[in-house]
Specification:
The structure is a single chain. By secondary structure, the chain is of the alpha/beta class. It has helices at residues 14-27, 58-64, 69-82, 84-94, 107-111, 114-122, 142-159, 174-185, 187-197, 202-214, 232-246; strands spanning 2-8, 32-36, 50-51, 98-102, 127-134, 163-167, 221-223. It has a 7-stranded parallel beta sheet, sandwiched between helices. Helix 7 (142-159) links the parallel strand 5 (127-134) and strand 6 (163-167). Helix 8 crosses helix 9 (187-197). The longest helix is centred in the middle third of the chain and has 18 residues, at 142-159. It starts with a strand and ends in a 5-residue tail after the last helix. Bound molecules: guanosine-5'-diphosphate and magnesium ion (MG). Residues 14-15, 38, 41, 102, 105 line the site of magnesium ion (MG).
Length: 251
């Protein structure tokens, strides 16, 4: 069993990619299931096989604890950890090759709280892989790309799983996608764009970027479209390569 945690900023395409991966595997005769870990989500582009909303009632938490939407989301996300044994049992009952885990809209609820770390480290699986999604709209300038890469590095440091950086929505951001892929794969292209746009900050940014690269963050970015299926072959290839032991955990 290979478990894939799909993380990224709100709106980066986690739920859509979860669905796209699910369809991709099932269309090719491989078993995959989806698991929604977002207690507050109202609608999803797929029908989750395992759904945290059956375990944790977000609306009831708001009422019972007199909390606003954010406080209730935090408490609900923490409560997920207390139900892990049951969730695990439900996941295991499918005996599936791939378990695709869609994480809460606000990435910090999963990545930066102890409960998320607990779930990522304690969930049983032969292999666990972290996907972090880069939304092209949030990283189409050199400094924004750097700040999202820093977030990716923080999430990687918190969750301590082998990881893949994914650039989403290729179909709707073709020019931005190729520019961003250029920055991620060639340091000189990033430095050049930086020197054109960020004036006196460029030395700091360039140093930060080179540190991140040396720690293997932001080097290979997999561009995909969950709508057209572009890039899925390469992404799934990387997932299976890592799962078969092709990648050591680098931190
Ligand atoms: N065109 C296009 N839109 C996408 C793609 N992935 C996500 N979206 C859209 O981006 C928005 C946010 O996607 P969603 O999967 O809900 O993001 P999440 O908050 O990270 O789960 C939705 O309107 C999606 O339809 C993609 O590959 N192509
Ligand atoms: Mg979502």
């Amino acid at each position: 069993m290979i478990t894939v945690f799909v993380t990224g900023t709100a709106g980066s395409g986690k739920s859509m990619l979860t669905k796209a991966l699910y369809d991709w595997f099932n269309e090719r005769g491989q078993d995959a299931i989806t698991c929604n870990l977002d207690p507050g989500v109202l609608s999803l582009p797929y029908e989750p096989d395992v759904d945290i909303r059956n375990y944790v009632d977000y609306a009831q938490i708001m009422e019972e604890y007199s909390l606003g939407p954010n406080g209730a989301l935090i408490l609900a996300s923490d409560m997920i950890a207390t139900r892990l044994a049951e969730i695990q049992e439900e996941i295991d009952s499918y005996n599936s090759d791939y378990v695709l885990i869609d994480t809460p809209g606000q990435t910090e609820l999963f990545a930066f709280r102890e409960s998320g770390h607990y779930i990522a480290s304690e969930m049983r699986s032969d292999s666990k892989i972290l996907l972090f999604l880069f939304d092209p709209k949030l990283c189409n300038t050199p400094s924004n790309f750097l700040s999202l890469t820093l977030l990716y590095a923080s999430v990687g440091l918190r969750l301590k799983l082998p990881r893949i950086a994914v650039l989403t929505k290729k179909d709707m951001a073709r020019e931005d996608s190729s520019k961003i892929i250029g920055w991620s794969s060639e340091a000189s292209s990033f430095e050049e764009a930086l020197s054109r746009s960020d004036g006196e900050k460029s030395l700091l940014y360039s140093k930060l970027f080179s540190i991140l690269r040396s720690l293997s963050y932001g080097v290979s970015l997999y561009p995909v479209s969950s709508v057209t299926g572009e890039g899925m072959v390469a992404l799934v290839g990387e997932i299976t390569r890592i799962a078969s032991g092709g990648e050591e955990l680098l931190d």
